[in-house]
Fold this sequence. Notes:
By secondary structure, the chain is an alpha/beta fold.
Amino acid sequence: MTQSLVPVILAGGKGERFWPVSRLKKPKQFLCLDGSDRSLLQSTADRLVKLADDWQSLWVITAAHLADGVREQLPDLPEANLLVEPVGKDTAPAVAWATLEIAKRHGEVAIAGFFPADHWIADEDKYRQTLLAGVELAVEQGAIATLGITPTYGATGYGYIEQGEPKGQYGGLSAYSVSRFTEKPDRATADQFVASGRFSWNSGMFIFPAGVMLNELKAYAPELINALESKGVDAYPELTKLSIDYAVMEQTQKAYVMPVDFGWDDLGDWNAIERLLKGDRDNVELCQHVCLETQDSIVYAASADEVIVTIGLKDMVIIRDGNATLVVPKERTQDIKKAVKALGAEERFQHLL
């Protein structure tokens, strides 16, 4: 291993599907949701700093209203390594700006990796070995290496990556060219993808030489990269909201996928907490819960003093946090974002966001 990874944590998300616990000033990446005493952001940093040379090589990019929260949670992060976006413009501007800044400091040969702040990882040793394999692939092939999670079921909430031609072994893992990216499919299509053995879940984790990504941005998103090269962060107000998948990954010939399996969840909504914590219990109980004939439900209260009583419920999510309560069937948790949008449309509910 001759080249170090410069990891960047993407920490600007809203986490709306974890409302009411996740709110604008304290979104899910600042919360402890996996049963540990470390927030998702802190756990992500803990994993990645072990691969970086030290805290000087770890970067975080976040939204302006979350910057103080990042500083509080990661006191060892150098201020120069905290990139603050004045307005959220999705992942393409975030990746482009951070890659430019890394190239300025470390050169275009630097190997940058981008990692969402809200992932849960089961086997951290295997995870780190996988990232080293991704670095090897990125260096040897001049590739944008994507980590594709080996699917365990036909999930409709994830994007998928189809494997193309085999491209060899790196760190004991197989690499393939990317045949195509597919956004969240319906259940029948997802089941077909999994059965074929050619598809991985799109984890949103990328590893690449900085210069390779900058060249691909110049080829496929020239307005974006030119504006950032010219004005830096001051270009943000004029940038188009754009995902890195759409801007580059769906067009580039440099994309490679490594199907991996280290125990992963993107903690997208409350159902993810059940996957992590339920075990053989009747319910996931994260509070004082008096349960009468209630099964397969998730019950949470932010205050240790609060008691939630449920009677005759099944497959429900009941969340209580201060001045707001959520009750929703587990199959409808994707609609929590719609509820948050409805709250935001009324002045009287602004304090609940």
